[in-house]
Amino acid sequence: MRLFVRHLVTEKLRSGETVRAYVADLQGFSEYLSESGKPNELNNIQKIDQFHVRGFLAKGFGRLKKTSVGRKLAALRTFFRFLVREKVLAVNPAAAVKAPKTEKPLPKALTADEMDRFFVRNSETNKRDIAIFELLYSSGLRVGELTTLKIQDLDLSDGWVRVIGKGNKERYVPVGSRAVEALNEYLPTRAMLEAKARSASEKDALFLNSRGGQLSSRSVARILKTQVVCAGLAKNVSPHSFRHSFATHMLYGGADLRSIQELLGHASLSTTQRYTKADLAKLMEVYDRAHPRSGVRDEKPPMSEKSTRKKQASDIASGGLPLPKKE
């Protein structure tokens, strides 16, 4: 298991949360095998087949979301693929097992008014917390990217931040003036928290907890839960909602998908398109404004030159226009 974890971290570049989830899924699979009187993964792994995998996943159906079942299958596939590569197994027993089909829900984004209300209602809160959410919204960061930022990644004078995203990919993202202001107000507080840090990595972290340690993604989610209540927002808001809102508002403001893709750090444009699917009300608004026969626009679209000539000829024939003068 230790070799597999090292493989996930150093070769697959998986995040700490993903590694912990995979390890928990493998431990659950091992417990399932033991409880079922089937071969234990540690001493009889060669006897494991696709039916063991299917049985383990079937145990989760009904009480787990399809996405959770899919993640468990992904953990097993990755683990057995690693064992095949290491020549511990000849074939991957999870390779033939299909993942459950899941409907991908549209990402939930806050409206611009809701975002304003969030920041106004929480304006007197902890300076660190305001800086966190201003930066999430300003730059569209993943919460895991935000919590792993180092103080040296910031350039507030020029207004940008260096981000290490998925797959250890580096990108530079602009930081808006509101976020720059919030970060500048937080930095004196951070200096006091840094004095409590016990290691060099903690001293480098941009966002620190009250003990001087690096703030975790779970802590950010917990802080947000309180602030959403203070803002009186009825929506189910997560740290990722700020990323969705960033992408959606950029699109509505006229940014093209390619630029949004770069800012979000997406490898695929199709992923960006999921973040920027407009809601029905917005689509109707765009349709009413753009389509000549929507029933909303008063002005008629300009006619082509050919259509103009045809109309003039028709009007002349009917006596509606004077004949053109001969030169």
Number of strands: 3
Give the count of helical stretches: 15
Strands ordered across the widest β-sheet: 1-2-3
Fraction in helix: 55-70%
By CATH, the architecture of the largest domain is named Orthogonal Bundle
| CATH level 1 class label of the largest domain | Mainly Alpha
Q: What fraction of the residues are assigned to beta strands by DSSP?
A: under 5%
Largest sheet: 3 strands, antiparallel
Gyration radius, to the nearest Å? 28 Å
Give helix and strand order, one letter per element, not per position.
Answer: HHHHHHHEEEHHHHHHHH
Low-confidence stretches: 320-327
State the secondary-structure class.
mainly alpha
Q: Mean pLDDT, as a whole number?
A: 84
CATH overall fold name of the largest domain? hpI Integrase, Chain A
Q: First CA to last CA: what distance?
A: 94 Å
Total domain units: 3
Descriptive account of the structure:
The protein is mostly helical and 327 residues long. The chain has three domains: 2-85, DNA polymerase, domain 1; 112-277, hpI Integrase, Chain A; 279-321, no CATH class. It has helices at residues 2-11, 16-35, 50-60, 66-85, 112-121, 127-139, 143-147, 177-194, 200-204, 217-231, 239-252, 257-264, 269-275, 280-290, 305-317; strands at 154-155, 160-164, 170-174. It has a three-stranded antiparallel sheet, with no helix packed on it. A hairpin with a 4-residue loop joins strand 1 and strand 2 (160-164). The longest helix is centred in the N-terminal third of the chain and has 20 residues, at 16-35. It is globular and about 60 Å long.
